């Protein structure tokens, strides 16, 4: 075979694979190319609501937590764009989504390995000079021409897809997932009644935007099955769950223990930021000064059972889960803040019989983020391993660490150094100094 064989081909260019591309660009030992079917980098454009911020500090950029000297850091982006002093005087640790998106675009435009407008349609294992590699079929979406590339490893960074309960799917243009919110602003602005379902950050940001924009002109209802509109855990020791130490502890647990833990950790990653809750309350308080009326209704512990067409509106039927009382409501618009789920990409179909799946139909993933399978070269997964590696899988703050592990695994040596201890607490048994028998804090 005379064709070029890459060390890694990346499929998808969200923040995680973009970070992998940036870190591989800065080492001469990994040769990679990355394909994305969209025409440009655009991170959750349907939720790019004015004023929304990341839920992690700016240090959780694409590269800094692996290599603070990288040319692709957020601070270098500021410096190269003449915004360093502006950011300094801003005095904010959490940057806006709008600026994070612009930063990622800035990086993607500087990486020759990032190819936009290309869709990976198939991945097949083949033999090359006695070694197994991958043949990757890539379609150029501008002219539908297909080309073939070869790689020793694959990195999947395809992201998650909107999750909608089966009984709420396919109802019409005015019942839609929160990920479409900015695309639906025109019909939202015309609606007289709006219903939001869900208790996460996306639902809360939409409700806040609706209160600010439509609080006195529309009937707004917000329902959630959760016990309340609670803040996400954001204490300093709580945040240590999003660390390599916790990931390593979690990975070594039996799968039944992992699943049990994840069910109890919702507020580590599914709640609402305390700042957003405060802003919602402040908006409601200010909007009712002087006996003014805001037609906004917040109701927790409530499940939406059915949504049915009723002339030009939707008839919503639900139940209060504690009192078991039933309720009904009519609404012009229904916005489903029902989260996201992992999807198995279609290009893996020819390999599905080679991949190991657990009893719940999920990937089995090894400690280095590679799918467990009968294939010798690795298929690495980005943000598809919460069930094996814990709550930090979708967290931007662990992206650079995971990419360091993947790069070191591909290279077969440590190109990006790994620390021994990242946090102050111990998730397993206590660390002790064996000579003195005393507790050690590094």
TrEMBL record:
InterPro entries according to UniProt: FAD/NAD-bd_sf, Lys/Orn_oxygenase
GO molecular-function term, one example from the UniProt record: L-lysine 6-monooxygenase (NADPH) activity
EC number(s) from the headed UniProt entry: 1.14.13.59
CC cofactor: FAD
Reaction(s) catalysed (UniProt annotation): L-lysine + NADPH + O2 = N(6)-hydroxy-L-lysine + NADP(+) + H2O
Pathway: Siderophore biosynthesis
Keyword line: FAD, Flavoprotein, NADP, Oxidoreductase
Family note: Belongs to the lysine N(6)-hydroxylase/L-ornithine N(5)-oxygenase family.
Protein name: L-lysine N6-monooxygenase MbtG
């Amino acid at each position: 075979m005379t064709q070029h064989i890459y060390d890694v081909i990346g499929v998808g260019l969200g923040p995680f694979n973009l970070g992998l591309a940036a870190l591989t660009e800065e080492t001469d030992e990994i040769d990679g190319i990355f394909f994305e079917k969209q025409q440009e980098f655009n991170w959750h454009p349907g939720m790019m609501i004015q004023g929304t911020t990341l839920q992690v500090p700016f240090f959780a950029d694409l590269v800094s937590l692996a290599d603070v000297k990288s040319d692709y850091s957020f601070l270098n982006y500021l410096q190269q764009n003449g915004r360093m002093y502006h950011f300094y005087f801003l005095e904010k640790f959490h940057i806006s989504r709008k600026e994070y998106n612009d930063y990622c675009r800035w990086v993607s435009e500087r990486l020759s390995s990032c190819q936009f407008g290309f869709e990976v349609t198939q991945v097949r294992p083949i033999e090359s000079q006695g070694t197994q590699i991958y043949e990757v079929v890539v379609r150029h979406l501008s002219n539908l021409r297909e080309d073939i590339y070869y790689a020793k490893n694959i990195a999947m960074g395809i992201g998650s897809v909107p999750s909608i309960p089966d009984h709420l799917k396919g109802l019409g243009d005015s019942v839609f997932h929160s990920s479409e919110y900015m695309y639906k602003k025109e019909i939202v602005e015309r609606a007289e009644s709006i219903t939001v379902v869900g208790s996460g950050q996306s639902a809360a940001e939409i409700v806040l935007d609706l209160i600010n924009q439509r609080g006195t002109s529309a009937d707004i209802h917000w329902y959630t099955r959760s016990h309340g509109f609670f803040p996400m855990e954001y204490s300093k020791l709580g945040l240590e769950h999003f660390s390599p130490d916790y990931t390593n502890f979690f990975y070594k647990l039996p799968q039944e223990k992992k699943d049990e833990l994840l069910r109890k950790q919702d507020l580590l990653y599914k709640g609402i930021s305390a700042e957003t809750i405060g802003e919602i309350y402040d908006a409601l308080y200010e909007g009712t000064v002087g006996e003014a009326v805001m037609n906004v209704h917040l109701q927790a512990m409530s499940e939406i059972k059915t949504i049915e067409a009723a002339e030009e509106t939707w008839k919503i039927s639900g139940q209060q889960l504690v009192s078991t009382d039933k309720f009904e409501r009519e609404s012009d618009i229904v916005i489903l803040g029902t989260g996201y789920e992992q999807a198995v990409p279609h290009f893996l179909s020819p390999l599905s019989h080679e991949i190991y799946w657990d009893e719940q139909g999920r990937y089995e993933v090894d400690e280095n983020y590679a799918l467990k399978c009968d294939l010798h070269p690795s298929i690495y997964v980005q943000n598809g391993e919460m069930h094996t590696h814990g709550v930090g899988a979708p967290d931007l703050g662990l992206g650079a660490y995971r990419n360091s592990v993947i790069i070191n695994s591909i290279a077969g040596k440590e190109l990006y150094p790994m620390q021994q201890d990242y946090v102050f607490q111990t998730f397993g048994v206590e660390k002790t100094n064996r000579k003195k028998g005393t507790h050690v804090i590094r």
